[in-house]
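Quick one, tokens below. Sequence please?
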């Protein structure tokens, strides 16, 4: 099945890698799950507990190793955590938003609105959501 691939270990029996075809996948207990839709990313939330730049550097290295130019879809991971409507995961996801491109931030606009207007997000996350929404408006 092609060359051996480096993986990022997230937890015991849980890792992420990219295939030769450029599909990012989660390996969980011997099974593989493609990371395509925002809803697929809940298995990768533990990444949000790590520093963004460290995770990005590792994924860039993995992609280079497999000779793939498709970057890991960080906006979908962040979106997935925001959709969970969990204060804990929203707080973690919000610390990664500043690393996204303007287009990626804009793709999360509806989720920022939900977080801003929510009761479940912390005050800090609601303030960040407000800040990102203002930034999106300025860059339109």
């Amino acid at each position: 099945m092609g060359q051996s691939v480096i993986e990022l270990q997230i937890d015991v029996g849980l890792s992420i890698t990219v295939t030769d075809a450029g599909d990012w996948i989660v390996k969980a207990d011997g099974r593989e799950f493609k990371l395509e839709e925002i809803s697929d990313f809940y298995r990768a939330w533990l990444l949000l507990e790590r520093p963004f730049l460290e995770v990005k550097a590792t994924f860039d290295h993995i992609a280079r190793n497999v000779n793939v130019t498709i970057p890991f879809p960080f906006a979908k991971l962040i979106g997935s955590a925001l959709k969970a409507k969990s204060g804990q995961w929203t707080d973690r996801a919000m610390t990664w938003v500043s690393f996204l491109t303007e287009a990626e931030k804009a793709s999360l606009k509806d989720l920022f609105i939900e977080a801003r207007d929510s009761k479940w997000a912390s005050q800090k996350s609601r303030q960040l959501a407000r800040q990102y929404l203002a930034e999106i408006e300025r860059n339109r």
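The CA atoms of residues 38 and 55 lie 18 Å apart. Confidence is low (pLDDT under 50) at residues 1-5.
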